[in-house]
Write a structure and sequence with these properties.
Blueprint lengths: L17 H10 L5 H5 L5 E4 L14 E15 L6 E8 L4 E7 L4 H4 L5 E11 L2 E5 L2 E4 L11 E4 L8 H15 L9 H6 L5 H9 L4 H31 L12 H9 L6 H14 L6 E6 L5 H14 L3 E5 L3 H15 L6 E4 L5 H13 L4 E4 L13 E6 L7 H8 L6 E6 L5 H8 L3 E5 L10 E5 L4 H13 L3 E5 L7 H18 L5 E4 L5 H12 L5 E4 L12 E7 L6 H8 L10 E5 L5 H12 L3 H12 L1 H4 L19 H17 L7 H11 L10
Parallel strand pairs: 4-6, 9-14, 9-15, 10-12, 10-13, 11-12, 13-14, 16-21, 17-19, 17-20, 18-19, 20-21
Antiparallel strand pairs: 1-8, 2-3, 2-5, 3-4, 5-6, 5-7
Helix pairs in contact: 6-7, 7-22, 7-23, 8-10, 9-10, 11-17, 19-20
The structure holds adenosine-5'-diphosphate and magnesium ion.
The site of adenosine-5'-diphosphate (ADP) has 18 residues, from helix 10.
Length: 689
């Protein structure tokens, strides 16, 4: 044991831990005493009631307090199987405890020992017996596991829940007083919140259900409050940036663009364009999320928003997650907008220096009205003359920070983020704060659901002849190869060999190959060829997952589909079914895991992106689905963004009020320090005095 224990003391130095077990603890993300305090039980066992032998009922699990009468270690007829049997009495009745292969338990329990036994109860030849019970010898100390609600910790190989329980019991009395409650007293009183240390203790050893709920609420509040406080501070800092430009919705450029479109807007598109128009006519920054299923036509809405900036005399920026998508958008927008005299530049990694220079200059001098690009848009040298509005497509692919970086290229530009993954309100609020939401809840007319089928490997030949038929009718086909090992090189290898094979099998067809490691020029050329129908079959890695839009493509084959995530499969499927022809999504491979099978079944069962997102949320958790996980913003120990909406609202209100009256948090320095330690970097908070 270390001399003085601190929250950041390494667990290695705790009694009974050592470096071997410390490594195992690390698997549970536990390195320090503080981490250990926040390792909360996975469940609890109610051992408050101690039952007399007479009152036991077979088929239940119960706790008995009894004295050992005799104990014997008996060999059995089966080799390798040992049996310890103890005769017990609670003073009135008798019963047995039975352990299989639990060595040493007989030595722990010499006759006369008083102990508690917790386990399943059976009736055997008229006597009750408890099989493989958890046992605790009663001595002078306060018992851990007797007559109370007992925590069961998440076990990992080599660390039993029992061992963890002992470790925590040992550490709690010294470690809990180290927890400082930095929540302002006023808030604690107003919201009737327990003291932090008491709540943490209560999560380990709750007295009853109500006590547990109160403790949980306190710790969840703490977690949600800190994030909300960080967000409120950030907003406060951003607001000092000044007013946003008033833009001009449905001005001449927007109208000309609409006239050039080959279709009228859907009702939903019209509504959302109106909502955006209302926002950007004000000098307060728009902060709006557009949710719309794959294929619902978000791009057109985005372009109209960007044109509101142009019509108002400002520039617009359109950030997308992949180069393939940037290329496509740039080509389309240029085709539609150059006739109107607008210059649209493309910014992506690996542009030839001359082109990059020229594009940057055009943006800085204001000759270019719009920029389409990948992450390259937020790089240092990129400067706009008058950036008025930014659109971020497939928001879940970007982090909160990147969005901030792009907004920083202008003076409080309006922001529209778009996603095909419906995000629960609790999550949008907790990650983005005050975010208005628009929904495209209508697909363009004439769309038919994509026929989605699972195809086992043994039916591969039939699949090949089916796509042959489709190509003969002039349709185009995607063939997506899976991630092999999280390794690009291997992915590329598998796609390359599939490309060779399919070229051989379809000698008369034009078979293309697209993957992330190709030179941009090649990607661009291939994509253009596919758009023009000059490629029949496109073999690709997941680079085509989002955004690619070719109406004549009617078949999406996904190889080894069980390896993909559910939302990812839905996105891939969304690449087809964009024209009037019947379209197919064929999931090739034999699902070997339960999870994989479930995903594939879910996809075959529904085409509704909202349904799919719901299922995905359940399978993977919200942080993962919405792409915020990697920023550590939602790595809560206790709070659950899907369930704790009410606590979240309270925490948010308190955080906003606090920032309102004390924006530098000068009156609560400890809270401020804790906040900066946790989120200063993640939220890019300015260090203020
Ligand atoms: P997503 O919401 O997935 O980004 P896109 O913006 O790529 O969808 O649009 C999908 C396809 O639907 C595109 O080919 C687009 O041209 C077409 N589209 C968009 N709006 C309409 C509409 N109102 N009527 C018909 N087709 C439309
Ligand atoms: Mg899109």
């Amino acid at each position: 044991m270390t001399e003085t224990l601190a929250l950041d003391s390494d667990v290695r130095f705790l009694r009974g831990v050592g470096s071997g077990r410390a490594r195992l603890l690390e698997r549970l993300s536990i390195r320090t005493v503080g981490d250990l305090l926040y390792l909360f039980p996975r469940r609890y066992e109610d051992r408050r009631q101690l039952t007399a032998f007479e009152a036991l009922r077979p088929g239940t699990t119960a706790a008995v307090l009894a004295r050992v009468v005799t104990v014997e270690n008996r060999p059995t007829r089966r080799p390798g199987l040992t049996l310890v049997r103890a005769l017990l009495t609670d003073g009135k009745g008798y019963g047995y405890a039975l352990w299989f292969n639990r060595r040493g338990v007989d030595r722990l329990l010499p006759p006369g020992t008083e102990a508690s036994f917790y386990g399943p109860i059976e009736l055997h030849r008229g006597k009750f017996q408890i099989t493989n019970p958890d046992v605790e010898v009663i001595d002078e100390g306060e018992p851990d596991s007797t007559g109370r609600i007992v925590p069961v910790y998440p076990a990992t190989e080599g660390l039993s829940p029992l061992w963890l329980r002992r470790l925590l019991r040992q550490i709690l009395p010294q470690a809990l007083p180290l927890l400082v409650d930095d929540l302002p007293e006023e808030i604690r009183r107003r919201r009737s919140l327990l003291d932090l240390a008491a709540a943490v203790e209560g999560l380990h050893y709750p007295r009853d259900g109500d006590h547990w709920r109160a403790c949980r609420r306190r710790v969840a509040f703490q977690e949600l409050f800190l994030l909300q406080l960080g967000l409120a501070l950030r907003r406060h800092q951003a607001r000092k940036g000044g007013l946003s430009p008033r833009l001009t919705p449905m001005g001449p450029m927007a109208r000309a663009f609409l006239d050039a479109l080959p279709f009228p807007l859907t009702e939903a598109q019209r509504r959302v364009v109106g909502e955006i128009g209302a926002d950007v006519s004000l000098d307060e920054p728009m902060n709006r999320l557009l949710q719309g299923d794959v294929g619902s036509g978000k791009t057109v809405v985005a372009v109209l928003a960007l044109l509101a900036a142009v019509d108002g005399g400002f520039q617009g920026a359109f950030m997308v997650p992949t180069e393939v998508l940037a290329l496509q958008h740039h080509r389309r927008l240029s085709a539609l907008l150059s006739p109107l005299g607008l210059h649209v530049v493309l910014l992506r990694g690996g542009l030839p220096p001359r082109e990059r220079e020229e594009n940057l200059r055009a943006l800085e001098e204001g000759r270019a009205s719009l920029a389409v690009g990948t992450h390259a848009l937020i790089q240092e040298g990129v400067r706009f003359r008058r950036l008025g509005l930014i659109v971020i497509d497939e928001q879940h692919r970007f982090g909160v920070l990147q969005r901030g970086a792009l907004a920083g290229k202008g003076e409080s530009p309006h922001v529209l983020v778009m996603t095909a993954t419906p995000i629960p309100r609790t999550l949008t609020v907790s990650i983005y704060g005050d975010l208005a939401v628009s929904v495209l809840d209508e697909l363009p007319p004439g769309r038919r659901p994509v026929v989605t089928r699972k195809v086992e490997s043994k039916d591969r030949r039939r699949l090949l002849s089916f796509i042959d038929g489709q190509m003969r009718e002039g349709r185009q086909v995607y063939w997506v190869c899976p991630l092999v090992e999280e390794s690009e090189t291997l992915d590329v290898a598998s796609a390359t060999s599939r490309h060779e094979e399919l070229s051989r099998l379809f000698p008369k067809r034009r078979v293309g190959l697209l993957h992330g490691q190709m030179a941009s020029r090649e990607k661009e050329a291939l994509l253009a060829a596919f758009h023009e129908g000059a490629v029949d079959l496109l073999v690709a890695t997941t680079v085509i997952e989002v955004g690619v839009d070719v109406a004549n493509a009617t078949v999406m084959v996904v190889e080894d589909a069980q390896r993909f995530g559910l939302s990812q499969l839905h996105q891939l499927r969304g690449r087809v079914g964009r024209g009037a022809e019947e379209s197919y999504c064929l999931l090739l491979g034999d699902a070997t895991t339960v999870e994989g099978r479930r995903r594939i079944e879910a996809l075959c069962a529904t085409g509704d992106g909202f349904r799919i997102a719901e299922i995905d949320l359940r399978l993977r958790g919200p942080g993962e689905v919405c792409g915020v996980r990697q920023h550590g913003l939602t790595d809560f120990r206790v709070a659950d963004l899907l369930k704790d909406g009410k606590i979240l609202d309270e925490a948010r209100r308190e955080a906003q009020d606090l920032v309102e009256i004390d924006p530098s948090l000068s009156r609560c320095p400890r809270l401020r320090d804790g906040l900066y330690r946790l989120y200063g970097e993640g939220l890019d908070l300015a260090v203020t005095g």
